[in-house]
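Colleagues,

For the teaching module next term, I've prepared a clean inverse folding example: a structure given as tokens, and then the sequence designed for it. I'd like students to try predicting residues themselves before seeing the answer, so please don't circulate the second half yet.
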């Protein structure tokens, strides 16, 4: 049996390398977070994640599952880039050393770019490990043009890909990720499993490359012995920005020391920012954001991960499907026709994935009022109605039948109802949010917590605190903490 048209083995080796590396790196990040949580708890603060999640930070399973996020984002992007480089070197360049040197310089340039703001071990590890593995094994797999169908086989791969990208691009708007979640993933059980897996494990890898400003909690140490009044002001200010002052010596995300009349902000032993105390006290938020920016070394890695997720993952799925279809088609067809058949299969699959989104968007006419959309027999159209209510800040309580969405079998209806309830100002709608807090689906609970934060009722604080302390879902805890902060609650050691 002939080989597939593209070196899938090399691609899979690249993804395996990325997964092994990501598992180790996420595990190391989890261990660091475990230590931070322990210190935060010992100081008497409320920790997020809580005691339900904390033991899992020591286990390898969350690290492995969390590592899949990097594998299917950054891993796919780097592997495809290496595949493209190997193809250029083997095919058009004919193995010329000068082209290999040029590709090596591009690779080294990428390493320099991700370390421009300071050495980023995670980014450097991925770039050092994944592309060489893929390039080496891909360049050794020199299948000849007759086996792949020659130039017609190449066009059979490229043209359907371009057409699918154009169709998706034409239909895409700023809500495309919401559309994929609402109408593609949540519309079927396998998609719901993917969604639940993502929300269960995505914060483990996210924690590994967040900037300080993006983290939920940060630790701080204040060492201003010569000015007790200033130290007291700093201890009061920092928790308002989720920098939790810790007693005694030891490592912290932020250290503030007094030096020659100035405040010196340090990360580890490195001086990052020096400010006049009056300048810091006048606008501490601005200074802390600048501190985070100056200590953030993972910004290039986050951008590369995002673009890899948006472009690399779909292209990898397309490539794998195409190669599998060619492999199956070669049982009965010659290479050229098998490639054409594979291209048509990939195009059909790509467009069929768009069909549920197109159906929902086309079913919700611009001429229909929100009331008409909400009364539609099609749940996708009703979701579009709820999204319209939320986006236009309409009062959901003015639609008498809104409570029937509380028990809808369609998850998107329930979480978009929660989003709309967050815009409501009617006291009568508050009970509906409370009902949704008990929903078995985490997306719904997160939306309900966000709604509580938007409504601004401080009486909800005890209920939210209870959720943070008892739920075993990190994403729910994260949304609950954000809701608390929206309500004006802040940390104190007595929490």
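(Answer key — instructors only)
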């Amino acid at each position: 049996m002939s080989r597939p048209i593209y070196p899938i083995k090399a691609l899979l080796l690249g993804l395996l390398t990325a997964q092994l590396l990501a598992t180790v790196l996420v595990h190391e990040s989890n261990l660091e977070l475990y230590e931070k949580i322990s210190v935060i708890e010992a100081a008497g603060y409320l920790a997020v994640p809580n005691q339900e999640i904390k033991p899992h930070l020591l286990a390898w399973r969350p690290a492995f599952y969390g590592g899949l996020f990097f594998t299917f984002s950054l891993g796919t992007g780097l592997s495809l880039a290496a595949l493209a480089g190997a193809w250029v070197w083997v095919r058009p360049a004919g193995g010329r050393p000068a082209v290999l040197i040029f590709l090596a310089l591009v690779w080294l340039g990428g390493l320099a770019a991700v370390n421009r703001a300071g050495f980023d071990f995670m980014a450097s590890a991925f770039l050092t490990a994944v592309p060489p593995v893929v390039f080496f094994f891909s360049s050794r797999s020199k299948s000849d043009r007759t086996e792949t169908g020659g130039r017609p086989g190449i066009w059979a791969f490229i043209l359907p890909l371009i057409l699918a990208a154009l169709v998706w691009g034409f239909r895409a708007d700023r809500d495309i990720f919401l559309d994929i979640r609402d109408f593609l993933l949540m519309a079927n059980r396998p998609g719901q499993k993917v969604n639940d897996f993502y929300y269960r494990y995505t914060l483990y890898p996210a924690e590994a490359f967040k900037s300080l400003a993006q983290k939920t909690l940060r630790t701080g140490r204040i060492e201003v012995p010569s000015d007790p009044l200033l130290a007291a002001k700093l201890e009061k200010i920092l928790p308002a920005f989720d920098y939790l002052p810790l007693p005694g010596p030891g490592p912290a995300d932020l250290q503030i020391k007094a030096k020659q009349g100035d405040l010196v902000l340090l990360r580890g032993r490195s001086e990052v920012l020096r400010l006049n105390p009056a300048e810091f006290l006048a606008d501490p938020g601005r200074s802390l954001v600048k501190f985070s920016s100056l200590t953030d070394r993972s910004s290039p890695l986050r951008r590369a991960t995002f673009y890899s997720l948006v472009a690399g993952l779909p292209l990898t799925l397309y490539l794998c499907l195409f190669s599998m279809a060619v492999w199956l088609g070669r049982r009965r067809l010659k290479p050229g026709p098998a490639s054409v058949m594979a291209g048509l299969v990939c195009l059909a699959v790509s467009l069929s994935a768009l069909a549920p989104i197109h159906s929902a968007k086309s079913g919700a006419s611009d001429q229909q009022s929100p009331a008409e959309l909400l009364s539609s027999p099609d749940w996708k159209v009703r979701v579009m109605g709820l999204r319209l209510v939320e986006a236009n800040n309409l009062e959901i309580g003015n639609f008498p039948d809104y409570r029937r969405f509380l028990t809808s079998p369609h998850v998107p209806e329930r979480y978009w109802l929660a989003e709309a309830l967050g815009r409501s100002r009617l006291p009568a709608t508050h009970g509906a949010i409370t009902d949704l807090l008990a929903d078995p689906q985490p997306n719904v609970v997160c939306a309900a917590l966000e709604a509580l934060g938007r409504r601004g009722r401080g009486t909800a604080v005890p209920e939210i605190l209870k959720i943070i302390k008892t739920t075993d879902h990190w994403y729910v805890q994260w949304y609950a903490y954000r809701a608390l902060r929206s309500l004006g609650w802040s940390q104190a050691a007595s929490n």
